[in-house]
Amino acid sequence: MKRSKIKFQSGELMISLRFFRFILIACLISQFSYLSSCKKELPLNPYDIDDPNDSIPSPDLQPNTIQWLHYYMFKPTCANSGCHDGTFEPDYRTVESTYNTLVFAPIVKNDSFGTYTYRVVPGSYQQSIIYRRLTSILNEDGDMMPLEVEPGSDFNERKTEYINAVKTWIQNGAPDMFGDDAFLPNLEPQLRGVQAYRNGANTPLVHDSYGFINVTGGTSTLDIWFAFDDDSTAISQFTTNEIKFCLSMNNMDSAIVQNITYSANPKTEVGYYGDTVNYYYKTTLNDPLLMFPNGAYVFMRVYVDDGDHSAPTEIPELYSPQTLKQYCTLKMP
């Protein structure tokens, strides 16, 4: 009897364990379902929606302002690679650079009559070369601007509107991005060209495709001439006229320093911007092949003072374009 009772009790225990396991699993499932139903739904991310018709709205800009002209015309049309993207002035990358390289900015290329002085003369579209370049050719070998129209520009469709906006902005006094009137600045001296002549020759050494001046073998003397421009001071009145030669492009601490002198008999040659300019300042290197190692690149920086600024003007300076630094470099044989 005792034996059968133990069997019976063991069976009851097994049934009880199975029932407890079933209840536990059921409770866990119920709890999970409850928690899942209480989970907070995340809001819809609008950036997850791909709408092919969606576009960035245009800013609310006042027509006939420099901001409007930059956004709709200058940047999409002219700030293309290798052109007015900072490679050449005017610089149309930003509103600020556009304004600063247009208003009372000295021109590089003039017409055959020497009509123009600045790219934009506030209050006079007739004296502003930017308007002339947009409406007619400058010389027989010139072209109207823009030379090419970028794919993202609507200049061809809105050409008349844009040119009229330029004219209106100029006639309104060419105000800046804050609406302030323009004023004639006193610019620092500008470098217009560098040429080098070996052994008293009349033909300058060649600037290669990178801009470097290629010094040839057998050079015993090297006359280096500089062309400058200034908006208010006669270049013959410059002071602190010196030049530094160094093997480092951006560090002049160990440079060789010489004076540059004014000559009343200038050289006339092509300048940095492709126009013909007069070279009034020169310096001479004696035995340059002994001064610098074979194959060296000798970087030049000139310092001139027009008397209107707190310090002499350094050209090229540390943050000048690479193209200008290379243009002011001697490449030794």
Question: Can you describe what's shown?
Answer:
The protein is α+β, with helices and mostly antiparallel strands and 333 residues long. It folds into two domains: 66-171, no CATH class; 190-331, Immunoglobulin-like, CATH 2.60.40. It is built from seven helices and ten strands. Strands 2, 4, 5, 8, 9 and 10 form a six-stranded mixed sheet that branches. It has a four-stranded antiparallel sheet with strand order 1-3-7-6, with no helix packed on it. Helix 2 (66-78) packs antiparallel against helix 5 (155-171). The chain starts with a helix and ends with a strand.
In brief:
About 25% of the residues lie in helices and about 20% in strands. It has about 325 residues and is α+β, with helices and mostly antiparallel strands. Helix 2 runs antiparallel to helix 5.
Summarize this structure as a short list of keywords or feature phrases.
single chain; 333 residues; alpha+beta; Immunoglobulin-like; 2 domains; six-stranded mixed sheet; four-stranded antiparallel sheet; 20% strand; globular; disordered N terminus
In DSSP terms (H or I, runs of 4 or more residues), the helix count works out at: 7
Indicate the low-confidence ranges by residue numbers: 1-11
Query: What would you say the CATH architecture of the largest domain is?
Result: Sandwich
Q: What class, by secondary structure content?
A: alpha+beta
Q: DSSP strand (E) fraction?
A: 15-25%
> What order do the SSEs take from the amino end to the carboxyl end, as H and E?
HHHHHEEEEEEEHEEHE
Estimate nothing, just give the exact number of structural domains: 2
